[in-house]
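Allow me, if you will, to draw on your knowledge of protein folds for a short while. Thank you for your consideration; the sequence and its tokens are set out here:
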Amino acid sequence: MRDVHDRTWVAEFEELWMEVLGVDTVDDDDDFFDLGGHSLSALRLSTLIRQELNLAVMFGHVLENPRLADLRDVASQVSPDKPVVESV
């Protein structure tokens, strides 16, 4: 489990959000879809999180946890070597 207070991966996680959404800043209460996200950008975000951070965050996790803080909590609980089974 990753520490949600570890600024290294948290900052990288936030950078991926900003990159995918094309925004300059994000905060914990921001909603992915309210910032212009859609299903294809959610797929892109989950793919980038897996590739760049080596965390098994799946497409369904983004859809079910659109708030930044909630998805970051999910990301802190997944293992890089064992994906969490989606309940979609």
Notes: The chain has four helices and no strands.
